Amino acid sequence: MHKVFVFGTLKEGFPNFAINKGVRYPGNFQTKNRYPLYLVGERYSPWLILNRGFGHQVQGQVFLVDDGVLGEMDVLERIDVADGYRRVELTVIEQVTGEELEVYAYGKPLEQLYGAHIQQEIQGDYTLAHSALYRSRQAVA
Q1: Spans of the chain below 50 pLDDT
Q2: N or C: which terminal CB in the chain sees fewer CB atoms within 10 Å?
Q3: The pLDDT of residue 138
Q4: Where exactly are the structural domains of the chain?
Q5: Which residues, in sequence order, are bridge partners of residue 65?
Q6: CB distance 39 to 49 below 8 Å
Q7: Closest listed residue to residue 25, CA positions, set 71, 57, 61, 60
Q8: Any idea which residues carry the catalytic annotation?
Q9: What kind of architecture, by CATH, is found in domain 2-140?
Q10: What pLDDT score does 60 carry?
Q11: How far apart are the first and last CA of the chain?
Q12: Within 13 Å of residue 11, how many CA atoms lie on the same side as its CB?
């Protein structure tokens, strides 16, 4: 089983949660380090930028997933495409207990931000109000 930190549309109750067939790990987590988080493009996609030490601690949920679910998440996040997300390992901290976990997360390299249409900077917490702006890839096709 793999631990995956989700901070955007894959969170419970958010637009792409149906793809997330994992089991939620108890607690609410945030990244140990700070990262920039933006809504980007005409789809208002949440981008965690892999530029550690900048931005804010990003809040999210951790799920235990098997190889099949991890593969489905990889497809959604387009990790094999040049402009897709990258699956990386990082450390998250449970906000009450301080428990630290090494997890997978999906982020974008800093160079992908250059020339991108940034709609909004997020202060670390992608909310339902942010997700109301999100449009699926099919919706804009």
Answers
A1: none
A2: C
A3: 66
A4: 2-140
A5: 2
A6: no
A7: 61
A8: 77
A9: Roll (3.10)
A10: 97
A11: 34
A12: 19
